Amino acid sequence: MSDFSAEARAWIAQDPDDVTRAELETVLGNAESGDADAIADLRNRFETRLEFGTAGLRGELGAGPNRMNRVLVAQAAAGFAAYLLERGETPSAVIGYDGRHNSQVFAKDTAEIFQGAGIRAILLPRLLPTPVLAFAVRHLGVSAGVMVTASHNPAADNGYKVYLGDADRGSQIVAPADAAIAEQIERVASSSSVLDLPRATDYEIAGEEVLDEYVRQTAALAPAGVTPLRIVYTAMHGVGWETAQRVLADAGFNAPVVVAEQIEPDPDFPTVAFPNPEEPGALDLALAKAAEVGADIVVANDPDADRLAIAIPDADGSWRRLSGNEVGYLLGWRAAERLAGSGERGTLAASIVSSPALGAVANAYGLTFTETLTGFKWVSRVDDLAYGYEEALGYLVDPAKVRDKDGISAAVEFLALAAELKAAGSSLPAHELAFAEKFGAFASSQISIRVADLAEIPRIMAGLRAAPPTVIGSVTVDRIDDFEKGFGLFPAGDILRIHLQGNARVIVRPSGTEPKLKVYIDATSAEGTPAERIEQAQAMVDELDAAMRVLVV
Q: Which of 31, 132, 312, 390 sits at 20 to 30 Å (Cα–Cα) from 328?
């Protein structure tokens, strides 16, 4: 413990936040009195620091280098500023923030440190969705962007997401920029107190024009005269509603019925265990509201509105949330139809853990299809991109406007699809059958294993490599692609892709943002009627899902 006592005192001396300073003083005092829990807590806070990578920073709020706090954010801002100054003589940056605890504080700290370092800093006028910040990077023509958000993480977390402009076109950072920025952050952290960093309060506040233009361009995605829909919308206690409300109104949709308990920003997310529309129970209030009002569709954004979830009524009146893959390939089919109708070319892209369905769409329309590593930073960088998605509810329907997933733009596109089907006397379930008839049926599932000990994940991965399965359930393994040292055009990564007979597939990898091991299961069928194809693909996924839960849990 004594090894961390001096570090804790040095941290306290430079912490500008009364709350985290007092928190650490209490932990330190208890640790020095011999309290075993406090000693372990202090070690956890100081034996490592949150790693800055391509996803920026993300972690639990609290004092110490292994938590999200004002000291760590100041170091990150100063390090990022140094990186930008090395890249260009007159860099500029726009900064956004969501409604989480300390998001606005972290954003203002960043603006002051950027401005103090000689970088033109522009702060968005209030808490706004991540897609608005990503749009602002391109719209304002700045060198970089920072979004303070932890997206759909638990309430105790916050994060720091970084974008680059210019040649990077407003995408999130990738290697080697992440390592170069991390090196600058480490230099700041080891050389000075954050209280000594130059600051300036004369940074700019972006005008309403930025949001107005985002709204205008996003609403323009919808065709004129959309058929009325009864929409239920939830913001999942996040920041999506103000922007989504304006966009949907300007696009011509009826005003949604909102889930009142979840519509305003609330950093404690009181109605959900995890503010992620994928999590069991997260949409319960929205589905109840939809049944109550006889809705046509449920639209849900996650807390920073970069993700979209959709639920639809089936023929028996029950409600069903579409998976990210189902929304993704239906939007991909729509994008392919648009390209075919205009005579234009373009590339469809998806992460490698997303359904192979989009590849089938691209093949049927003679379009280029590109698979990328997991993460929208890769999807958004695909050349000649017309549409991209990843199965974790992330969709990019308008690459000319924004180079990140955008849950509001995607909502407009999906609602336009639903409205067109309704006008034609059809429905989304019927459209799914039409997809299965044209391209084959594709089913998928995901297993997400949250661990308390991060060392458990590499142990599981090492076990799979040491004793690779030859059969999963009753299905024979054809081959395994191990990305550990790189595979094909992909760089090295901790990914195993298991190909099985019958064109089924299982992918295993650690999460990039949470303490989870993730397993992605996909199957397809092109035999029989559309309904039979869907049933067969789903049966295969169910069998593989059950077998993988035994294999990796």
A: 132
